[in-house]
Structure formats: C-alpha cells, structure tokens
Amino acid sequence: MNKQTSVGNKLRTIRDERGFSQRELAQLAGISTNAISLIERDENSPSVSTLQNLATALNVKMSYFFDDHAPTPVLHIHSQQRPAIESKGVRIEGLEGKLNRQEMEPFLVTLDPNSGSGERQVVHTGHELVYCLAGNVEYLIDGTIYNLVEGDFLFFEAHLPHLWRNRSSQPARILLVLQTSGLGGEPVERHFSDYPSVTFIGK
Q1: CATH of the domain at 22
Q2: b vs e for 1-21, b when ≥16 Cβ sit within 10 Å of the residue's Cβ?
Q3: Is the residue at 190 inside a domain?
Q4: pTM of the model
C-alpha cells in the first residue's frame, strides 16, 4: 500500500463544515479535545473505535475519510490502490470510490497478534459478513465466542453486541462486509468507531 489517506485533513474539513469547535466535537464523540487536535495535525492515528465515534458524531460514513469520488457503476480496485488506516495493530483497507446506491461496505482488515476492534462491543443495524482469509480471529457475539480460521464464514444480525480480536501469536486477516442499505454510514461508523475515517466509505 503506497497511498495513505490524511484523516486529519478530512476531519478538520468536515468539522468546519458542521460548524463544530474541537471541544464540541470531542464532547459529541466522547473523546478528548487534545485527541482531536492531534488527529487533525496527523500526529496521532485514531483507533477503529475512535474513528467510528467521530463518524457517528459527524453523521457520515467512515468511508468519508477514504474517498472523494463520485458514484460509478463498476469499481476495480488494484491491490496497491486501496486506501488504508492503521492504528494499534489493526490495518483497515477500504474502497477508493463507491457504487451508485451502494448497499454494502467491504473492508480488508489485518490484525496483528493481540489486537482487535477494542473492548467496547458494537451494535448497529443490518447484517455483517466475515470471511477469514488467514490466521485465527475471535468474534464475540451476544456473549458467545466464535473462533474463525482460514476459510471460515460468519454471518449474523448486527444488532447483536459484537467485537473481534486476534488473540493468537500470528497475524490474521479478514474480509469484513457491512450492510448499509438505506442506513447511511451508521453500520460502518459504529463498527469502526475508533476510525471515523473508514466511513464516507459515505453520504
């Protein structure tokens, strides 16, 4: 991946558009004013849950932080052109662009050993599809643990509280697809609350 999105610039731009001060946005997102300042100066990479909190507070999809392209009928994303966010051992790669009336948000997520989505469980509308590409990923869904190994699928109703993590000593990778049909960026924003930049990935 040789292209990294400047989350800080996009955050500052949309915060200005919404008319929020850093303090006001911090209160809405439940994070510190200093954290927002550091992110906007690109001196700190937000976690998935921080990005999701920011996206929710700003009422955008996390993909907002990834792309600037008008909708198109076909997307062909080359492996070296996927926009990405990295923080706390988690790398999230999204799409550079979006389809007309897009109803799914796919992400390629790479997890370092002992990393994950955070301790806060996520709840959102729609459904969630996970395909384990490599390694071992643990999903906690409504109190039940599901261990995914290479080749496993997991498909569930996303209103059930859930989180994901890699507790093994080896890296893991999953294809994560969130249903966003008619829901704006809510599923993505909630899922990647530490990474608001993952979701204009749209309005």
Answers
A1: 2.60.120.10
A2: eeeebebbebbbebbeeeebe
A3: yes
A4: 0.63
